[in-house]
Amino acid sequence: MNLSEQLSQMRNNTLKRMPQHILKVFIESIESIKQNKVKEKVLQKRDVIPNIYLKNLDDNSLGLNELDFSDFLILNFYRGGWCPYCNMELREYERLKNKFTEIGVSIVAISAEIPELAAQTSIKNGISFPILTDVDAKLMKTIGIVFELDENSKREYGNFGLDLTKIHGNDNYELPVPAIYVVDKNMKIVFIHFEENYMTRLEPQDLLNTLKKITIKH
């Protein structure tokens, strides 16, 4: 199964077993993102992402301009290792990693979870590409993909045992909207995919096919 089929299966299972009152809260959260037109406010194609420092798995600072890649870099913004949809997506990018490398495209995954948890995410999913921590979501806020959880969502996340303040190491109840940004060596954006519904993602194989065309032109 490709990623879309795997996610669809997981989504259907989730919808069947999740209590309606909880499902209602999460659906309302997704609708809020759409109504706030977050998609229209993010950095767009041909914009340049500024150099912002992240943390690697060893808790060392690393600037975006220090990332080592050949021609293009995929920035995969994920919610956290606690999100099964994100884990499934990360594993699919790992599966296709060599295919991306063949066309001069590298991958890095970014979330706001602290390096210790990001390391756990990397290990449990068998990830060989870099996973970085965006401290206090500075990069994600610059791009415009961060939203704050409403009170109902905070309560339900807590009921699931998820304390975002501990996961992120701050007092903010914020999450990124899952997004894929592809940049060139100058950090200029050449491709964007923004997913308002966290239960669906861009098919990595489709991204690979798109980037093949971009790299040929390059």
Automatic annotation (TrEMBL):
<dbReference type="InterPro" id="IPR000866">
    <property type="entry name" value="AhpC/TSA"/>
</dbReference>
<comment type="function">
    <text>Thiol-specific peroxidase that catalyzes the reduction of hydrogen peroxide and organic hydroperoxides to water and alcohols, respectively. Plays a role in cell protection against oxidative stress by detoxifying peroxides and as sensor of hydrogen peroxide-mediated signaling events.</text>
</comment>
<feature type="domain" description="Thioredoxin">
    <location>
        <begin position="43"/>
        <end position="216"/>
    </location>
</feature>
<dbReference type="InterPro" id="IPR013766">
    <property type="entry name" value="Thioredoxin_domain"/>
</dbReference>
<dbReference type="GO" id="GO:0034599">
    <property type="term" value="P:cellular response to oxidative stress"/>
</dbReference>
<protein>
    <recommendedName>
        <fullName>thioredoxin-dependent peroxiredoxin</fullName>
        <ecNumber>1.11.1.24</ecNumber>
    </recommendedName>
</protein>
<comment type="similarity">
    <text>Belongs to the peroxiredoxin family. BCP/PrxQ subfamily.</text>
</comment>
<dbReference type="GO" id="GO:0008379">
    <property type="term" value="F:thioredoxin peroxidase activity"/>
</dbReference>
<keyword id="KW-0049">Antioxidant</keyword>
<dbReference type="InterPro" id="IPR050924">
    <property type="entry name" value="Peroxiredoxin_BCP/PrxQ"/>
</dbReference>
<dbReference type="GO" id="GO:0005737">
    <property type="term" value="C:cytoplasm"/>
</dbReference>
<dbReference type="InterPro" id="IPR036249">
    <property type="entry name" value="Thioredoxin-like_sf"/>
</dbReference>
<dbReference type="Pfam" id="PF00578">
    <property type="entry name" value="AhpC-TSA"/>
</dbReference>
<keyword id="KW-0676">Redox-active center</keyword>
<keyword id="KW-0560">Oxidoreductase</keyword>
<dbReference type="GO" id="GO:0045454">
    <property type="term" value="P:cell redox homeostasis"/>
</dbReference>
<keyword id="KW-0575">Peroxidase</keyword>
<keyword id="KW-1015">Disulfide bond</keyword>
